[in-house]
Amino acid sequence: MSYVFDPAPIPSVAVDGSEDRLPVRRIFCVGRNYAAHAREMGKDPDRDPPFFFTKPADAVVMDGETVTYPPETENFHYEAELVAVIGTGGRNIAEADSLSHVWGYAIGNDLTRRDLQLAARDKGRPWDFGKAFDRSAVIGPVHPVDKVGHPDTGAIKLTVNGEVKQDADLAELIWSVPEIISILSHSIELRPGDLIMTGTPAGVGPLVEGDVCVVSIAGLGTIETKIGPRE
């Protein structure tokens, strides 16, 4: 079989301490999964069922890269997140079995065109243009479970030009990683290479050209992203 044009390269992310790469199949994101962030977005933080949106796999950006300030926005935001990486697929996964499907964890930054997201939300439209644009998913090296375990407590912090903007604890997640995996798997079959960005704490805010954004999570180190000029 031949293709009418060359297939796109397989998106991938780094693996901590290895030259190997981890192929990315899909990126799922959990919306409003910290109570304080739900409040700052004008929503009730009650424990309603979680909701999900997606980013394209080829939106991934490595640690240390520069992200050009994206088009069609005047309100470009950072969002620090813990990322769970699926290594063993499955559907209808029981919560008690969920963590056995995780290969590792990474630090993420869910870059967001907030003005486009909110305009779509207010009109009852999908968030795609606000969330799923080019180079919108900064993903650091993946740390295998056999090295870092399953982080469920510890600091998650984001700074811009050295100033702390987000400072919370993973224990503040409304829906835990095992719950998220189980709920998602009852709707969509998970497969190796699926990434789940688990939500961001309060303190989201704008980035401008020249900013340096650093995200840290206890036990996973830090990642850094510089914002470049508009093209």
TrEMBL record:
4Fe-4S is among the record's keywords: no
Fumarylacetoacetase-like C-terminal domain segment(s): 27-227
Top-level taxonomic group: Bacteria
Keyword Metal-binding in record: yes
Molecular functions per Gene Ontology: hydrolase activity
Keyword annotations of the record: Hydrolase, Metal-binding
Name used for this protein in its record: Fumarylacetoacetate hydrolase family protein
